[in-house]
Design goal:
By secondary structure, this protein is an alpha/beta fold. The protein has helices at about 10-30, 45-50, 105-115, 175-180, and strands at about 5-10, 35-40, 60-65, 80, 90-100, 120-130, 140-145, 150, 170. Strands 4-3-2-5-6-7 form a 6-stranded mixed sheet, with helices on both faces. The protein has a 3-stranded antiparallel sheet with strand order 1-9-8. Strand 5, helix 3 and strand 6 form a beta-alpha-beta unit. The longest helix has 18 residues, at about 10-30. It is globular, with a radius of gyration of 17 Å. It binds inosinic acid and magnesium ion.
């Protein structure tokens, strides 16, 4: 049976190598700060876990759950906050997310956190899609820039599947179309693990 993944973009070792670099940068930037990390569920879980274990600072960690990804692969509608917004007043906030696409979600998260009057807010994403034109928000730390195509794995999902793949890969285009047309198509994710 053919794989659901068209090609692997970043395997485990490549991701971990890049995380070493970003973690060193963040550690240096926040060495004398009151760092509060806010991880956006669920996509950032693997990234958050691997990144934070490389940052030897006395940081605080909270999670935010937001919903904005309506339907299948397109972001639209309002961003809904499903968890209480943590009190980050006076602290240096670093928001972690899996991927920056339109920036709609992260712009809304940033705006919401600003109401708590933190000392600073920065954004760190594993992936950022190359887009034409202006975006709603920019990231301060980026793992990898990628082309504007749909990726899964290492936390990223397609209709809640593929999050546990140990790499980031591009989903086969016909699968994307088929599943978008019919939610009931059965997938064989297990064969990639
Ligand atoms: P944005 O609001 O358009 O920036 O979308 C951000 C969210 O959409 C991310 O946190 C992901 O959950 C999801 N997303 C955007 N692009 C992809 C992708 O290529 N694969 C999987 N999820 C994606
Ligand atoms: Mg998602």
């Amino acid at each position: 049976m053919q794989s659901d993944i068209e090609r692997v973009l970043f395997d485990g070792p490549a991701i971990h190598k890049r995380l070493d670099e970003i973690a060193a940068q963040i550690t240096a930037d926040y060495s004398d700060r009151e760092l509060s990390v806010i991880a956006i569920l669920t996509g950032s879980l693997m990234f958050m876990s691997d990144l934070l274990r490389r940052i030897p600072l006395p940081l605080k960690l909270d999670c935010l759950s937001v919903g904005s990804y309506h339907g299948k692969t397109q972001t639209s509608g309002d961003v809904v906050f499903k968890l209480a917004v943590p009190d980050v007043g006076g602290r240096d906030v670093l928001i972690l997310d899996d991927i920056l696409d339109t920036g709609y979600t992260l712009a809304a998260v940033r705006k919401k956190l600003e109401t708590a009057k933190p000392r600073s807010i920065r954004i760190c994403v594993l992936l950022s899609k190359r887009k034409r034109g202006a975006r709603n928000v920019d990231a301060d730390y980026i793992g990898f820039e990628i082309d504007d195509e749909f990726v899964v794995g290492y936390g990223l999902d397609f209709m809640e599947r593929y999050r546990n793949l140990p790499y980031v890969g591009v989903l086969r285009k016909e699968l994307l179309k088929r599943m978008a047309a019919d939610d009931s198509v059965m997938l064989s994710q297990a064969k990639h693990l």
